[in-house]
Amino acid sequence: MLERYENAIQIATLTVCVTVSIFRAAKYRSRSWTLLSFFYGSWLLGDIYWLNCLLFYGETPHISVVSDLSWYAALIFLYMLLRKISPPEELRDASPVSSLGPAFTIGMAVFFMLRGEIISNLIYAGLMGLLLFAAIRRLIPEDRTEQSCLPAMILIYCLLEYGLWTSSCFWNDAALFQPYYIFDLMITMCFPFFIPAIGKAVTT
């Protein structure tokens, strides 16, 4: 029951966010705002399917690939948005520190594959590793650009997702202060902050 309410809050938050980003994409004819709209919209579609299964079947989806495909697309759009805001050709050669992102996602993928699906965990590891590599590359001192808000938000967002996934491996009860729900709520609160991050990056 608690998961239904939490998902409903996230859907409501994403609905507001995608509405704002679509409005700004149309107003400013901006590719950056359009990509942000696609990120929000894709994640929203995955959440809607997930909540639909909870409401009508009383359990999480047996075929989670429907939601996963939407969330894969969302991560791809987020990566494209980062490249649009801060093109790779404007950066110096990648620091070895940037490789910590992919190394972390590979290690976590092995951990998750021992407890669940293999293919989906490999896909998430690839997408999250790419995002973390790109975000860290833009945050380390020698490569930092003026548009550092979006990479910082992406780094926070990815770490919260891993906190969510990891907590689901150890806590399965429906307690209000279960780490899974706390991380999910923090992710929900994180979504709106992409809007000012894009606004700052577009105007710099």
End-to-end Cα distance, whole Å, is: 44 Å
SS-based class: mainly alpha
Helix content: over 70%
Shape: globular
Radius of gyration: 17 Å
Structure description:
With 204 residues, the chain is an all-alpha fold. It has a single domain, classed as Up-down Bundle (Rhopdopsin 7-helix transmembrane proteins). Helix content is 74%, strand content 0%. It contains eight helices and no strands. α1 packs antiparallel against α2 (31-57), α2 (31-57) packs antiparallel against α3 and α3 (65-85) packs parallel to α5 (119-137). The longest helix is centred in the N-terminal third of the chain and has 27 residues, at 2-28. The radius of gyration is 17 Å and the shape is globular. 32% of the residues are buried. The model has no long low-confidence stretch (mean pLDDT 86).
Task: Provide key terms for this protein.
204 residues, Rhopdopsin 7-helix transmembrane proteins, mainly alpha, globular
Short description:
This protein has one domain (2-203): Rhopdopsin 7-helix transmembrane proteins.
Write the layout of secondary structure elements.
Layout (H helix, E strand, L loop, with lengths): L1 H27 L2 H27 L7 H21 L14 H14 L5 H19 L11 H20 L10 H12 L3 H10 L1
Helix pairs in contact: 1-2, 1-7, 2-3, 3-5, 4-5, 5-6, 6-7
